[in-house]
Specification:
The protein has nine helices and nine strands. The protein is of the alpha/beta class. It has a domain at 124-263: HUPs (Rossmann fold, 3-Layer(aba) Sandwich). The strands form two sheets. The protein has a seven-stranded mixed beta sheet, sandwiched between helices. The two termini are 18 Å apart.
Length: 264
């Protein structure tokens, strides 16, 4: 997937492998003695990895000592990286408990968009021309218009269809209860009015909007599956800004999503 995106945007690629030897090693001398050999072996392995997966595509290989999240964030800031792409971990029924801590930290601190997927091992990397549908999830806040515009640019780069989804967490769209139906009608009307304005400002037709009700991560996963989305774009924000609902649900969204998630 990294290679496909690099070719699509004529982007430079840096492969970063971080090695942390601090856990369980209390003797500084022992740490220093093992470090050169381990780093050299990692460089050989990374070179073979690059040749196997990237072929003739030019890549910069970097092996650094330190924690994965810290080195990734530092390298991204140093190189003014436009996009970080990394998998997360966790499989089967325990995926939501095993989400990689390094990935979570990068998502929390990185100042650039982050691509990740909880299901990378079971997915085939699609060629750029196979990117057909991009789903953009938004909150009803000031970031919605800019996020939709960014997703519109990305979709146009792939000649893909863009669908916009907003999930109303206070709404149970499956309930048959009369009172909950009344609440659902009220919040749906409010959301439709707000999202119509947002879609108009973002330059998107209203018929590309999907409104859902329920648990955010669950409903986004269901919508992505229904729309056969190849990518889910969500707003993540930065530490300097207030924390929105989608940011709060970033990790559950990634864990449940049937497609890769791009957090902006």
């Amino acid at each position: 997937m990294v290679a496909a995106w690099a070719r699509q945007f004529q982007a430079k690629v840096t492969l970063l492998h971080a090695i942390s030897l601090t856990r369980g090693i209390d003797d500084p001398g022992l740490y220093e003695a093992f470090q050169p050999a381990i780093q050299q072996a990692a460089e050989v392995g990374l070179a073979a990895f690059a040749q196997q997966h990237f072929g003739s595509l030019a890549v910069t290989r970097v092996v650094e000592m330190g924690g994965a999240s810290e080195r990734t964030i530092a390298r991204a800031e140093k190189e003014r990286t436009s996009l970080i792409m990394m998998p997360t971990h966790g499989h089967g029924a325990f995926r939501r408990f095993l989400t990689g801590s390094a990935t979570a930290q990068v998502l929390h601190d990185a100042q650039c968009p982050v691509w990740t997927s909880a299901h990378t091992a079971s997915q085939r990397a699609k060629r750029p021309e196979q990117m057909r549908t991009i789903l953009c999830a938004v909150d009803l806040d000031a970031t919605a218009v800019s996020l939709i515009r960014w997703a519109t640019w990305l979709a146009s780069s792939y000649d893909a269809r863009l669908k916009v989804v907003h999930v109303m967490p206070a709404v149970d769209e499956t309930s048959k209860n009369r009172g909950e139906k009344a609440v659902r009608r009220y919040w749906t009307q409010q959301a439709e009015a707000a999202m119509s304005k947002i879609m108009r400002q973002a330059g998107q037709p209203k018929d590309e909007l999907v409104l859902r009700g329920g648990h955010i991560a669950t409903m986004l996963a269901a919508t992505a599956a229904e729309q056969k989305a190849d990518l889910l774009v969500i707003g993540r924000g930065h530490l300097k800004k207030s924390l929105g609902r989608l940011r709060t649900h970033t990790m559950p969204i990634i864990c449940k999503s049937p497609c890769p998630v791009l957090s902006v």
